[in-house]
Amino acid sequence: MKNSSKLYIVLLISFFIFIAVSYLTGYDNGEKTAHEFLSIVYEMLLILPCAFILIGLFEVWIKKETVIKHLGENCGIKGYFWVLLLAGISIGGLYVAFPMAESLNKKGASLSIIFTYLGFVGVFRIPMTIFEISFLGLPFTISRLLVTIPLFLLIGIGFGTILKKYNYQFGVFAKK
Amino acid sequence: MTIFLWAFTAGLLSISLIKDFRKTKQALKIATKKFSSVFLIFILVLAGFALLITFVPPELIREYLGTESGMKGVMVATGLGSISVMPGFAAFPLCAALRMEGIPYYIIAAFSITLMNVGIVTFPLEKKFLGLKVALLRNGLALIVSLITVICIKFLFGE
After folding, report:
1. What is the pLDDT of residue A2?
2. Other CB atoms closer than 10 Å to residue A164's CB: what's the count?
3. ipTM of this complex > 0.85?
């Protein structure tokens, strides 16, 4: 992590040196880059604080433990609602989703629930969705969700039903 | 759009403040911490974008991702989304910047949805958990979901 931020800083410094030199030598494209950069940073800074405040509020008011409590053996149809919520409060990408799916498996959640979770977690993480709405607008996000959520639900249930027939075992330890 | 966002945020923040002062303070702390942790990469992405806009001819971007690009644009965006690993915190500002350049929503959808759901770089990890066949199948299906969504978005927004 430290190394990557060092790299970022080096890259940023080179960028600013490029801009400074462009201004000193009157290099047109450099000045144009600076203008594009400033106008886009300005646009983003109008949005960014809201997005982060919303994410902060969300993390404080909704607790993961309460949601996981509702998932497990025999959670039935309601399980799909809870798994949507669980995907919503997940943070991080697939690296976090797979270990989470593994622990759902240990708790006795069905394969359908687990695969639905893996689908939902890519499209309905709430912090990410807040970010998306802030930058791309509510109509875009809503239409995207209306299409992807039912599809991933179907895929999850389908995966679960078919794999169960093949006696599929989920998780690292089940694989050779 | 931005005004609504601010009004909405201010509204929720006040409700939270009335209900529980300490929790609200903690929420703001989380917000600042997250903000500072992504700030560098965020500025860097925008710098890269400014360079891209200046040095890559607009015709070229329009040809490969613009309104006229059609199927080709969807393929390019899908390919880019599938191979890149980028935190959403960097990806959505990039998408918004592309949007300001007139790139249609359905192309942006192709990129952002595959970015989140199809993972070539994360595939080895996925294989470990799911096994080769199921991991391949999951990624393939996610690709199809992305394409269906792209088509819907294209019709919904009439671009």
Report:
1. 64
2. 12
3. no
Contacting residues of B for A34, CB less than 8 Å apart: 50
CA distance linking residue B43 with residue B49, whole number of Å: 10
How confident is the model over A3-31, as a mean pLDDT?
90
Rounded distance between C-alpha atoms, residue A126 and residue A131, angstroms:
8
Q: How far apart are CA B134 and CA B142, in angstroms?
A: 12
Q: How far apart are CA A88 and CA A62, in angstroms?
A: 10
Which pLDDT tens digit goes with each residue over A94-106? 777 888 888 888 8
Calculate how close chain B gets to A174, using CA atoms only, in Å: 8
Q: Can you tell me the distance from the alpha carbon of B2 to that of A31, in angstroms, rounded to the nearest whole number?
A: 28
Confidence (pLDDT) at A176: 42
Biggest CA pair distance of chain A: 71
Dihedral of alpha carbons A46, A49, A53, A59, sign: positive
Set of chain B residues whose Cβ sits within 8 Å of the Cβ of A40: 46, 49-50, 97, 100
Q: Give the number of residues written for chain A.
A: 176
Residue B57: other Cβ atoms inside 10 A = 8
Residues in chain B: 159
What is the DSSP annotation of chain B? -HHHHHHHHHHHHHHHHHH-HHHHHHHHHHHHHHHHHHHHHHHHHHHHHHHHHHHS-HHHHHHHHSTTTHHHHHHHHHHHHHH----HHHHHHHHHHHHHTT--HHHHHHHHHHHHH--STTHHHHHHHH-HHHHHHHHHHHHHHHHHHHHHHHHHHT-
Instruction: Give the model's pLDDT for residue A110.
Output: 87
| A55, B28 Cβ separation under 8 angstroms | no
How do residues A111-164 score in pLDDT, each as one tens digit? Answer: 899 999 999 999 998 888 988 998 899 999 999 999 999 999 999 999 999 998
In B, which residues are within 8 Å of A135 by CB distance? 92-93, 95-96
What tens digit of pLDDT does each residue of B64-99 get?
888 888 889 999 999 999 998 777 778 888 898 889
